[in-house]
Amino acid sequence: MSFRSFGPPGPPLNLRSVAADVPSFVLRCAFLAWVLLASDFTLGRAWGADAGGAGASPVRLTLLVLGDSLAAGYGVEESQAFPALLREKIDAAAIPFEVVNAGVSGDTTAGGLRRLNWLLRRPVDVVLVELGGNDGLRGMSPDATRSNLVAIVDGVRRKNPKVQIVLAGMQMPPNMGEDYGRRFAGIFPDVAREKGLVLVPHLLEGVGGRPELNLPDQIHPTPAGHVLVTSNVWQVLKPVLEAAAP
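Predicted structure:
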């Protein structure tokens, strides 16, 4: 924020010499107090004009992406990962949001829950929860994953009940077993229904299982894969951001 001056600058005011011309000590003090109050008033007008004037930057809300290696952009440039691509779409749509990418490679729902309070030290307006994939790949109990997701939602709402939460749905590859895959996939719609969340049905829709859209590990998307992931998220997230925008 810049400070605006009003009128051309003059010579600096020597308060001591001006006050010395006032014979009474009481009047001298009153005169100095008047000068200080006038200065404060002028400074306040200058800051206020800068904050609310035509050239002021619009207020930007915050989208927090709480995620794992998919959000962190494992194997690609940060600018190619879906949170950065979401930022581009937000800017192109002129929605007044900034994106805070809190993706950590290898993170689980338990890890996300542990660092939640630290992340919520700054105000947020919308939270996109992209966690659970590593839980599934490690064969963790779906009940534990579900419990952690519910605790994350409750933690966000304790901090600010008005925050909108979007939950990204996950699915497991077939090698994790049919029963486990079914139970795991059911976590996300169940939590969304129970807690009143907005659901991205399947984050990796159109990307998972397609070798050309994944890195050699067949888990993490290529840059082209992240473009599709962004599309999956954006069609759900955009109305949420627009509704939350001032």
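Summary: Residues 1-57 form one domain.
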